Amino acid sequence: MYCFLQLERRNRKLNMKFIFVLISIFIFQWSFSQDDSIIDYGQKLVDENRLNDAIIYYKNHLNNPESPEQNIKLLIGLADVYKLKLDYNSTNDYLIKAHEEIELTGNIELRFLYHVKMIEFYRKRGLYLEAIKHQEKAEDIRKNNTINDSYLSSYYGRRASIFSQHFGMQDSILKYANKSLELAKKVNHKSNIFYATLEIASVCALRKDYKTALTYFKELIKYSNENNLIQHQADVYINYTNTLIKDNQLDNTLTESLKALEFIKNNDLLYNEIVITTNVYETYKKLGNYEKAYDYLLQVVILLEKHNLKKHNEFLFELEEKYKLAEKENQIKINTLEITNQNKALASNKIQLYVSIGLFLVAIAITLIIANFLKKEKSTNKRLQSLSEENEFLLSEANHRINNNLQLVVILITDQLKMTSKQNSFELKNVLTKVEAISTLHKHLYKNKDKRKVDAHNYLSDVTDSFLNLFEENNIKTKFHIDAVEISSDLAMYLGLLLTELCINSIKHAFKDQEVKELIFEMTYRENILFFDYADNGSALIQQEIKPKLVDKLCRQLRVQCQIDTEKGFSFSFKKEIRND
Q1: Half-sphere exposure of 308 toward its Cβ, with a 13 Å CA cutoff?
Q2: Does 453 have pLDDT greater than 70?
Q3: What is the CA radius of gyration of the chain?
Q4: Helix axes 456-465, 422-447, angle to 10 degrees
Q5: Which residues contact residue 202 at a Cβ distance below 8 angstroms, ignoring those fewer than 6 apart?
Q6: What confidence score (pLDDT) does residue 33 get?
Q7: Which of 245-249, 351-355, 423-427 has the lowest mean pLDDT?
Q8: What is the pLDDT of residue 564?
Q9: Which of 167, 305, 325, 529 is the most buried if burial means most Cβ atoms within 10 Å?
Q10: CATH number, domain at 481?
């Protein structure tokens, strides 16, 4: 009987321990699933290209993370978002914070994930040697530890990318892409499935197996569309249309490129828009439709200018805001010190001794605070000086890249001029003058202290100077008057393109066999109104109703209503209200 009771008690203890273990496992799994659901939803926002929403979401959860591991994943998530926004400074800041937290927790898998993210961070910027250093550190961790399949899939995918973009070793690309794909399918990691398959398809395209490559690309477009992977779909459109061009499927290339262009514009992906617009230009050129090709070439130039100006203006705005914030913080500190001193002075008039002691202590405190404040102010000034130097470097780099882009366009057009007839040669000169108008604007912006405005007189005078040879060759007399007024860079660009197009149209279409050829242009500024008046005495288009397409498009960009009169030649005019503050 005694043995039976002892056995029963022992069984009860075992049952209690078993129940306790089950409850612990359940709580752990529940908290882990909660952690994953928060991170997964943030990744969903990133996949849908809702980057600003993702930043707000991650930062809100960073205020009260459920665990140190979740805190690290949120920091890495923010780094991924800023990397997609091409804000590499913020990306680096959040990766550093994540690394500091990882070192505190000692989590091996998250340390491995950090090195995978650093591989991608440096690969994205073209710093392959730095990327390879982190790849070697990740490989050391992998050899000595068990890593989950999701992180391993990302690691092998990054290795495939390094071999693709740096080494160009096709067999190694396939090896690591297939490893990544196998693991990604196992854990249903949609992004890794997509990019591993994209690497495999790209190798097929490199080996000129275009049929297989195009099949892969079509499946990836369908896959990204079904899973709402916006950035992924935009990326595969680039590979898809490039391969169609290589396979000489020009009509299909045009159809798919225009479809891709509409999708990319709807999702505001500027870099992808530049690449696809370039593909449309190349396709029209190969099809022999030079008019369309030059329209899209002009769009490429405008998009490149927009991209460079956007990055430059964003940097200037960020620098200005940081400086203003530092000034406000310093003023608040000064005001706080003044209020503190006044309160202490009012409260210390009871006993003279206490007043003396209080004033002495306050003096010491003020001295220390001011010393600390001056130290921080000196540090802030050094930081601002550093930012100013960095700004000068970025300006120089942006100027260099814009000059390269414009020079590339000029070389392409010049090469085409050598191979075309006289009639087509004039069309190419037409495009060349428009590119030169944008190049002139860039030179004026680069010289100005205020990069957002240019002097209309100096800029448009330089634009008309580029036509002097054409006017002399065609025996055309000119009379130009342009008021000196500062206008925005965007307005200047469209005015330069409009004046260029009007001059080209006059030279090409306005004059028949007439001895006296005259062209008049005036732009005046009165009471915040800009008056644009252009006319020629050409007889070719008298009493005809005309509406040049590009002129009409430029007027819509300027948001003006133009008046065209062909009673005594050609006359074009509009007025636009501007604030020259």
Answers
A1: 23
A2: yes
A3: 33
A4: 150
A5: 164, 173, 213, 239
A6: 43
A7: 423-427
A8: 92
A9: 305
A10: 3.30.565.10
Within 8 A by CB and 6+ apart from 444, the residues are 454, 455, 458, 459, 462, 492
Q: Is 572 part of any domain?
A: yes
Q: How much is the pLDDT for 16? A: 56
Q: Is the pLDDT of residue 147 over 70?
A: yes
Q: Which of 522, 532, 537, 546 is nearest to 570 (CA)?
A: 537
Mean pLDDT over 373-380 rounds to 77
Do 554 and 572 meet the contact criterion of CB atoms below 8 Å apart?
Answer: no
Residue 562, pLDDT above cutoff 90: yes
Segments in 188-209 forming alpha helices (H): 190-206
Question: What gap in Å lies between CA 87 and CA 90, rounded to an integer?
Answer: 6
Q: How far apart are CA 440 and CA 312, in angstroms?
A: 18
Distance separating alpha carbons of residues 278 and 293, to the nearest angstrom: 9
Here the tokens at position 22 are 């089950």
Q: Is residue 401 a part of any domain in this protein?
A: no
d(CA 133, CA 113): 14
Residue 328's pLDDT band, with cuts at 50, 70 and 90, is: low
DSSP state of 163: I
Taking residues 118-134, what's their average pLDDT? Answer: 90
Q: Say whether pLDDT at 398 is over 90.
A: no
Question: By C-alpha distance, which of 147, 140, 141, 217 is closest to 187?
Answer: 147
Whether residue 68 has pLDDT greater than 80: yes
Q: Give domain status of residue 550, yes or no.
A: yes
Mind listing the pLDDT tens digit for each residue in 35-53?
478 888 988 888 888 889 9
**pTM, entire model:** 0.51
The helix/strand/coil state of 247 is coil
pLDDT for 489 equals 85
At 49 the three-state DSSP class reads coil
How long is the chain? Answer: 581
Q: Is residue 484 part of a domain?
A: yes
DSSP assigned state of 395: H
**Which pair of structure tokens corresponds to residue 468?**
């002097």
* Cα–Cα distances in angstroms (integers) from residue 394 to residues 391, 397, 443, 479, in the given order: 5, 5, 16, 40
The chain-wide mean pLDDT, for the chain, equals 82
Q: pLDDT value at position 7?
A: 41
* pLDDT for the residue numbered 481: 94
Helix axes 270-287, 230-246, angle to 10 degrees: 20
Nearest C-alpha neighbor of 206 from the set 228, 253, 239:
239
Domain that holds residue 537: 454-577
CA distance 322 to 312: 16
Count of structural domains within the chain: 1
| 3-state DSSP of 483-538 | CCCEEEHHHHHHHHHHHHHHHHHHHHHHCCCCCCCEEEEEEEEECCEEEEEEEECC
Contact 492, 544 (CB under 8 A): no
The bridge status of strand 486-488 relative to strand 453-455 is antiparallel
Mean pLDDT of 150-177: 89
As a whole number of angstroms, the distance between CA 376 and CA 525 comes to 48
| Cβ-contact 279, 300 below 8 angstroms | no
